Amino acid sequence: MLDSLWPLLHGAITGTIPLALSSFAIGLVLALGLALMRLSRRRWLSSIARVYISVVRGTPLLVQLFVIFYGLPSLGIVIDPWPSAIVAFSINVGGYAAEVIRAAILSVPKGQWEAAYMIGMSHRRALTRIILPQAARVSVPPLSNTFISLVKDTSLASLILVTELFREAQQVAAFSQQFMALYLEAALLYWVICLVLSSGQGVLEKRLDRYVAH
Amino acid sequence: MKRHLVSATVLTLAAAVALAGCSASAGDSGGASGSTTGTDDSLSSVLESGTLTIGTEGTYRPFSFHADGSGDLTGYDVEVATAVADQLGVKAKFEETQWDAIFAGLEAGRFDTIANQVSITPEREAAYTFSAPYTYSTGVIVVPSDNTSITSFDSLNGKTTAQSLTSNWYTLATESGATVQSVEGWAQSVALVEQGRVDATVNDKLTYLDYKKQTGASGLKIAAETTDRSESAFAFAQGGTALADAVTDALATLSADGTLAAISDTYFGADVSK
User: Fold this and answer.
1) Are A167 and B182 in contact (CB < 8 Å)?
2) What is the pLDDT of residues B131-152, one digit of tens each?
3) Mean local confidence (pLDDT), A2-18
């Protein structure tokens, strides 16, 4: 049990955690753009975002991973395992988080917009200074959900040659034949990582509270 | 309140770790399958239920696959397993799963046996019970046809190959010094070789020949072949000797009456059962 802790931790530190962090960061930027596009009055912009979100949410993540890694080479596009995984996860997070951010922006009372215009702010300024900080507070719990899901979804990357926590567990299990013990150990590690993330969520919520008008 | 939550979590965690530790040590002493101690009811339970449940991949041509991709489950191993079940006077029921989950499934009692070109290796013999072999084959290194740097198992040293984690080819490739990328099965392995993402893959010669015949893949070749033949057999949970012996008897009958040779001829155009 203790012998296997190191390979699993190694998988978490070199695989699961960096994969989740980088994909989430890229995915969030993508999501913010998509949410704003979706809210845009320009029809073509919001249509693009709508189609993107529909495709991402309407297809399994595993299929997306396989298309990018095993499928694209038939078009002559060969991407390494790690970039493939990050691309797939970012695209996926982008789709889900876009709707979270859109909802958060819509949840800020209309009066906040009006008050901002009243004191002479432009649309862009009102958005970045007044609306987004308040939307950020609202979106923390659902975005934490997305992030926590992502942490666990990274186990799918093992199917496209990325060695992460779960693949390490499978490798150890394959040789020690201790399937139950190793899978339990992997489950525990995922849980611990997600516990840490949940406590981070609490801190973030408290910190962002100060931006909200009461 | 918050402090209570934290300590409760820590306690739960500690308990869970302790539990996992217990189950691990129980496995060490060989009590995991439960059939090593007490009476061996592996055969009687199969006869009683009237069904032999067989774990197989369903994606491993020509041993276990779906005809035309979406038709019925068929293949050399599937037909042999069905014939064996007939001999035992029970119904054959196939459960399809990924190769890397197959031994875990056998251990967990999800199926009675595995029919999927399972090679007999010393490591596996220590953990499982085997019937007599019913397939003999060699292992080959498959490389792109323009590859000249791999000519033997020794030359795999420092190269990258794609293998299933729990397969004996994984062990062979590792022992030859290759860096192994683990994949789910033959389909992904050969795709990675063809896409140039790995240097080679080690697998059963019969699988490779069938793949070449089916797809007409011209970009691949055999770089080397093992000298000793591998033997494949039905695998059972450790201690399932009664069932393994009954299957061995059934195989002997099927071999004597020419059934095995006939099935083999259908898939390989040769008798690989001897």
Assistant:
1) yes
2) 999 999 999 999 999 999 999 9
3) 90
What is the number of domains present in chain A?
A: 1
DSSP A153-174: HGGGGGGGT---HHHHHHHHHH
**What's A26's domain CATH number?**
1.10.3720.10
**B2 is written with which tokens?**
């918050």
For the entire predicted model, the pTM comes to: 0.75
Confirm or reject contact between A192 and chain B (CB < 8 A): yes
pLDDT tens per residue, range A125-160: 999 999 999 999 999 999 999 999 999 999 999 888
Nearest CB to A178 within list B13, B16, B27: B27
Closest to A161 (Cβ–Cβ): which among B21, B23, B181?
B181
Cβ contacts of A4-8, under 8 Å, gap ≥ 24: A4/A169, A4/A172, A4/A176, A4/A178, A4/A181, A4/A182, A4/A185, A5/A185, A7/A168, A7/A171, A7/A172, A8/A165, A8/A168, A8/A169, A8/A172, A8/A182, A8/A185, A8/A186, A8/A189
Which of B123, B125, B182 to mutate to test binding with chain A, by most A CBs within 10 Å of its CB? B182
Cα R_g (chain A), whole angstroms = 20
User: Is the CB of B27 less than 8 angstroms away from the CB of A192?
Assistant: no
Residue contact A159–B108, C-beta within 8 A: no
Amino acid at A173: A
Contact B24/A at CB under 8 A: yes
Which pLDDT score is estimated for B194?
Answer: 92
For A120, the domain range is 2-211
Q: How far is CA B268 from the centre of its chain?
A: 19
In what helix (H) or strand (E) does residue B161 lie, and over which residues does it extend? strand B160-164
A64: confidence class by pLDDT, cuts 50, 70, 90: very high
Q: Is B270 on the interface with A (CB under 8 A)?
A: no
Strand positions, DSSP E, B2-159:
51-56, 59-60, 64-66, 73-74, 91-96, 113-114, 128-130, 135-137, 139-144
| Distance (Å, whole) CA A196 – CA B192 | 37
Integer Cα distance of A33 and A35 in angstroms: 6
pLDDT of residue B190: 93
Judge whether B165 and A170 are in contact, CB under 8 Å: yes
B79 vs B15: which has the higher pLDDT? B79
